[in-house]
């Protein structure tokens, strides 16, 4: 479905998108501060590793869309903060696997809990049909932004 967008609708739409992006940025920064001063990329690594325990560095780099060299720096910091553990693969010593430490698991659970509370807060003012419609439109928006790159 292609719809002609009127010029007078473009500015409010752009402002709403920018406000949404800023709100997520602020929420991400606050969450990072609450979790010991983590950056957005560090949180992304912790979440990915928490969901896929004992993963290869290259898989993490692919997921967070960063070169392995950048991921190495991020991982070094997370190992220093005692959030991640790095080990060589038993099958292939050249492969480095990463997993969460006990402290890292606590940080992961905190991040997931914070995300869950944010989602519950957003959805609490909607009925089921509104929530489904919101999800549908967010997926469409995400796909469209991905195509626009």
CATH superfamily: Winged helix-like DNA-binding domain superfamily/Winged helix DNA-binding domain
Helix-strand string: HHEHHEEHH
Radius of gyration (CA) equals: 19 Å
Please count the helical segments.
6
Helix content: 55-70%
Helix/sheet category: mainly alpha
CATH C-level: Mainly Alpha
Topology-level CATH name: Arc Repressor Mutant, subunit A
CATH architecture: Orthogonal Bundle
Secondary structure tally: strands: 3
Question: What ranges have pLDDT less than 50 throughout 5 or more consecutive residues?
Answer: none
Shape: elongated
Task: Walk across the major sheet and give the strand order.
Answer: 1-3-2
The domain count comes to 1
Rounded mean pLDDT is 88
- The separation of the N and C termini measures 20 Å
Would you kindly provide a written description of the structure presented here, covering whatever features stand out?
With 149 residues, the protein is mainly alpha-helical. The protein has a single domain (29-148), classed as Arc Repressor Mutant, subunit A. The protein is built from six helices and three strands. Strands 1-3-2 form a three-stranded antiparallel β-sheet. The longest helix has 28 residues, at 7-34.
């Amino acid at each position: 479905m292609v719809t002609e967008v009127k010029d007078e609708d473009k500015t409010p739409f752009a402002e709403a998108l920018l406000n949404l992006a800023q709100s997520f940025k602020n929420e991400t920064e606050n969450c990072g501060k609450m979790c010991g001063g983590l950056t957005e990329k560090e949180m992304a690594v912790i979440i990915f590793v928490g969901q896929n325990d004992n993963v290869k560095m290259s898989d993490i780099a692919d997921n967070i869309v960063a070169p392995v060299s950048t991921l190495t720096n991020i991982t070094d910091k997370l190992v220093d903060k005692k959030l991640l553990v790095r080990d060589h693969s038993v099958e292939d010593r050249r492969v480095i696997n990463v997993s969460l430490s006990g402290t890292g698991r606590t940080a992961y659970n905190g991040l997931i809990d914070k995300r869950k509370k944010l989602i519950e807060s957003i959805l609490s003012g909607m009925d089921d049909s509104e929530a489904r419609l919101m999800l549908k439109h967010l997926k469409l928006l995400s796909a469209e932004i991905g195509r626009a790159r």
